[in-house]
């Protein structure tokens, strides 16, 4: 761990005060946590899949994500629906092991979905984002048996 005392001799060097400030800034940047990777799910991970769907997180906020859904080949409608649902479940787990979500499709743009991560089944989604007013709260654990088989 870098200590401030170890930087003091740098202040007396030829670069002086500005060298010390630059060193401190570099140390802070090096110690800062890395930016979290955004989420991505690709249906091609299933070798036998006839579907070609990619779900990519394009925006991340404290309690919401926006995902872009690119569909090149649907495959079976049930299979593609469960791929999308299980991808959202994976994202919710990554974001903080959330069990409950609310979503609205085509927000903020066509081919996108706004997803809110809820603390409980009774939390009103519109308190997180007004665009979620009137949206149903979904318990992702009801799909766990199917999603766990898709891994």
Compact summary:
The protein has 4 helices and 6 strands.
Describe the model.
This protein is an alpha+beta fold and 151 residues long. It is built from 4 helices and 6 strands. It has helices spanning 8-11, 16-31, 77-96, 144-150; strands at 40-42, 52-60, 64-73, 100-105, 112-118, 138-139. Helix 3 (77-96) packs across helix 4. The protein is globular, with a radius of gyration of 22 Å. 18% of the residues are buried.
What features would you highlight for this structure?
single chain, 151 residues, alpha+beta, six-stranded antiparallel beta sheet, 4 helices, 6 strands, 25% strand
Counting copies of identical and different chains, the oligomeric state is single chain
What kind of sheet is the major sheet?
Answer: 6 strands, antiparallel
Q: What proportion of the residues is helical, as a percent range?
A: 25-40%
Radius of gyration: 22 Å
- Taken in chain order, the helices and strands follow as HHEEEHEEEH
Integer average pLDDT: 82
Beta-strand percent range: 15-25%
Question: First CA to last CA: what distance?
Answer: 40 Å
Extract low-pLDDT stretches.
Answer: 1-15, 20-36
Would you count the extended β strands for me?
Answer: 6
Provide a count of the helices.
4
Strand order in the sheet with the most strands = 1-2-3-5-4-6
Q: What is the 3D shape?
A: globular
Name the structural class: alpha+beta
């Amino acid at each position: 761990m870098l200590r401030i005392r170890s930087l003091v001799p740098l202040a007396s060097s030829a670069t002086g005060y500005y060298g010390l400030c630059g060193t401190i800034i570099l140390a802070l940047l090096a110690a800062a946590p890395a930016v979290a990777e955004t989420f991505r799910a690709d249906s091609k991970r299933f070798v036998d899949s006839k579907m070609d769907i990619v779900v990519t997180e394009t925006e991340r906020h404290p309690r919401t994500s926006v995902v872009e859904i690119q569909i090149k080949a649907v495959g079976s409608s049930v299979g593609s629906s469960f791929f999308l649902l299980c991808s959202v479940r994976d994202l919710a787990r990554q974001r903080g092991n959330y069990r409950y979500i609310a979503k609205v499709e085509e927000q903020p743009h066509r081919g996108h979905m706004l997803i809110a991560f809820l603390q409980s089944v009774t939390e009103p989604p519109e308190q997180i984002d007004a665009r979620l007013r009137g949206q149903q709260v979904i318990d992702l654990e009801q799909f766990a048996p199917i999603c766990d088989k898709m891994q």
